[in-house]
Amino acid sequence: MRYPAATWRPGPPEKTCYPGVRIRTGKGAVLHSMEGPLSAALGELDKLDRRASWHFSNPKSGPLLQHYETEAPTWHAGYQANCAYIGVEHEGVAGQPLTEVQVANDVALLRWLAQQEDWPSFSRHATLWEHNEFMQTSCPSGRIPWARIIADLENDMSEQEKIELSLRKAAAGLTKLLADLDFQKVANAMKVYLGVVAQ
Ligand SMILES: [Zn+2]
After folding, report:
1. Is 197 part of a structural domain of the chain?
2. Residue 34 contacts by C-beta under 8 Å, 6 or more apart in sequence?
3. Average confidence (pLDDT) per 10 residues, the chain, 199 residues
4. 140 CA distance to ligand 1 centroid (A)?
5. Which residues fall inside 5 Å of ion ligand 1, going by CB?
6. Do residues 85 and 145 share a domain?
7. Which of 107, 114, 125, 128 has its CB surrounded by the most CB atoms within 10 Å?
8. Is residue 1, in this structure, part of any structural domain at all?
9. By residue range, what is the domain housing residue 129?
10. How much is the pLDDT for 199?
């Protein structure tokens, strides 16, 4: 799928997928820092001998650029993550906070992806990831203001979505409590319930 608010700027068609893996299967996104300007990152994207690709580039100003269909696995955070998650690169380097435009682009994109793919929540280490959580790297160099992004995402939810989110949070808390008490069967049942809610 193509994100309607992004500018379509395709990457080389060779730089996507793996043998036998043509569709991404997870629900979530991995955020990155380009550690340079947009022009340099696009240059790397276009190099056929550079084994790196990603779905979206988020520039300091202006709309997102989309390089691959959201279904396609791209090459941004290692095999496991690539088979599961969307990759989003951010223009700029370590020490530069995201611009207001970049934050707004991220919030709008993540909301749209969540709607398209029916994400269960906006949660770190569940649907929202950093590159360094999959491999040895400093990327995205602490540049992602997660608390603000998640607050903006949750503020824009409908009342029904807010109720469902609270229920999921309550159920997750209960599941943890039961697991700690070693009521394993009950905990497993709650996990099934969470899975049903997440569909
Ligand atoms: Zn990265």
Report:
1. yes
2. 40, 41, 57, 89, 90, 91, 92, 93
3. 98 95 95 98 97 98 98 97 98 98 98 92 94 97 97 85 79 76 72 61
4. 6
5. 32, 131, 139
6. yes
7. 128
8. no
9. 7-156
10. 43
